[in-house]
Amino acid sequence: MDSSGAELSPPSHALTARERALEAALAAEKARASAGLMLASALSQSLTPEKIVSVMLHYVTPLLHAPVASAFLLATGADALERVERRDKEAPGVASSTFLPLSAPLPECEVVRTGKAVWIESLDDMAERFPVLCARARRTGRHAFVCLPLAVEGRAYGVISFELAGARAFPASEQAFLLGLAQQCAQALDRARLEAAEQRLRLALDAGAIGIWDLDLSAGQVEADARCRAVMGLPAAGEVDRDGFFGQVHSDDAERVLAAVRRALEPASGGALLEELRVDEGQPEPRWVALRGQVTFDAEGAPTRLVGGAADITERIRAEQERARRLSKLGHDLRNPLSPMLTALQLMRMRAPDVLVKERTILERQVAHLSCLVDELLDVSRTTLGKVERPRKPCETAVVAGPPQVAAPERRRILLVDDNRDAAEMLAEGLRVFGYEVTVAHDGPSSLSIANEAAPDLALLDIGLPGMDGYELARRLQDIPGLSEVLLVALTGYGQKGARARSTEAGFRAHLVKPVELSRMVTLLETLGLPPASPPQP
To answer: What is the DSSP string of 282-349?
Structure first.
């Protein structure tokens, strides 16, 4: 004490060892707290995985006074660790790129395999656990080693490692602190992964022009992004309920789509929804949309959400329809030359049954084969559009309306209209062999003029006529006085379901697909009340 009785503070050199240790511990704790705050702030930014681990090294290496620090990330698509950064005070220019197989007997690999940190406090500890490192440790004097896992909920991202000079203990409080920093780093890596995945998804959605929708099945409300609203024809803003969302579906598709949704809501279905549909019913050409979705189910198997995407596929559908139309036209054009070839071969067989039998047989077989190939070509088109029809024989005859006729001997006048002159002339010649009176025309206008004079009992019309097609010609023929009851038969290269339906609407009694065997043609004519006058004579 001084003369006033006040107690004097001892000089700094008089501090006890305990007090100096306490002071050092407080300084270290302050440094750790500061580093932890700065690290947390830095990791809160949107960073790449490489930048994240670099930030970790930047703030933690000084705390440990580590001469060497390294950051490893799991290599993409490889069962290995890739060192993406190395900090070495003694050799700062050493290249950092190194791959470590996960099976290697090294602490970094063990951390990934076990998910647990490695703490090596002395050379003896290292010799016992990782003898492969001992030679280097003796040479460098770095006998302590720390290896921290970068993992979140069992998902490993990489490893941070530090080599320390001499031997060193790692108290439990310091281990907990370092593991906490490593966990922050791992969480930042996890966020970076999710952000990268989200960015890839968004790029994919943007590239595919796909909108996202999410139906809460309990509330009946739909959340849809701007692109989905535009694709489905929904308002740009405001709430959308389930009925409003599916109410945009074209009425011709609504029942099918709603049935598909009901199936998806059944647990046994797997919850997938895959439909192509039309919207914008009020427009001249409705827009086509591909609707994809997946149902999630709770533990009891009850559906809870239906999440999916919507993409405008109008251009694709129109391109497919145009391709189908072109293939259909190609099929028609390919069938046209087959008809006169088949008829000519049949006439040759009738007129000279014993001449060139082998050659005729080969040609007839090849004509039939070509006809089958045409059908397969058209089936490819129908398969593309999801409209595969029942396989048909190339010369299938389909009587589509009306009962059989009672034959009248004088009813044998036929008007044959086909723009393929060879096909028309050969078929006319073949029918004449059976005693029919055949008048030939090659287009709609001329056939209308001829029909007035010929007064046909039956009109055998090609559908794909230039200018005026066979459907229009059929209607005009029936408007001619005295021909309202003329029998109509379609003879065409178009065999699709739609073409047959149009034939029925236009008043055709039968729809024949080229090429047609002459005997089948005569059988049909007889069914319709036009029997042959006499069997053909060789």
So the answer is: TSSSPEEEEEEEEEEE-TTS-EEEEEEEEEE-HHHHHHHHHHHHHHHHHHHHHHHHHHHHHHHHHHHH
Q: How far is CA 4 from CA 8, 9, 10, 11, in A?
A: 11, 15, 17, 19
Please state, in angstroms and rounded to a whole number, the distance separating the CA atoms of residues 153 and 189: 12
Q: How many CA atoms lie within 13 A of 404 on its CB side?
A: 7
Mean pLDDT lowest for which of 47-51, 172-176, 519-523, 530-534? 530-534
Window from 101-115, 353-367, 508-522 with minimum mean pLDDT: 353-367
What is the model's pLDDT at position 147? 96
Residues sharing a CB contact under 8 Å with residue 376, sequence separation 6 or more, in sequence order: none
**CA–CA distance, 307 with 292 (Å, rounded to integer):** 8
Q: Using the predicted structure, report yes or no on whether residue 388 has a pLDDT greater than 60.
A: no
Question: Mean of the pLDDT values across residues 179-205?
Answer: 81
pLDDT above 70: residue 401: no
E strands, 473-513, where? 487-492, 510-513
Helix (H, G, I), strand (E, B) or coil at 156: strand
Residue 138: how many other CB atoms lie within 10 Å: 13
| Dihedral sign, Cα of residue 256, residue 262, residue 263, residue 269 | positive
- The angle at the Cα of 421, spanning 417 to 425, to the nearest 5 degrees, equals 80
In the block, tokens 């050659």 appear at 359
Q: Are strands 287-297 and 272-279 parallel, antiparallel or unpaired?
A: antiparallel
Closest residue by Cα to residue 402 from 480, 511, 494, 498? 511
pLDDT for res 407? 45
Cα Dmax for the chain:
157
Under 8 Å between Cβ of 217 and 302: no
Alpha helices in 44-171 (DSSP H): 49-64, 107-114, 123-129, 134-140
Q: Determine the Cα–Cα distance for residues 234 and 228; give it in Å rounded to an integer.
A: 8
Closest alpha carbon to 49 in 14, 73, 32, 80 = 73
- Residue whose C-alpha is closest to residue 185's, from 71, 315, 333: 71
CB proximity list for 491: less than 8 A, separation 6 or greater: 418, 427, 460, 461, 462, 463, 512, 514, 516
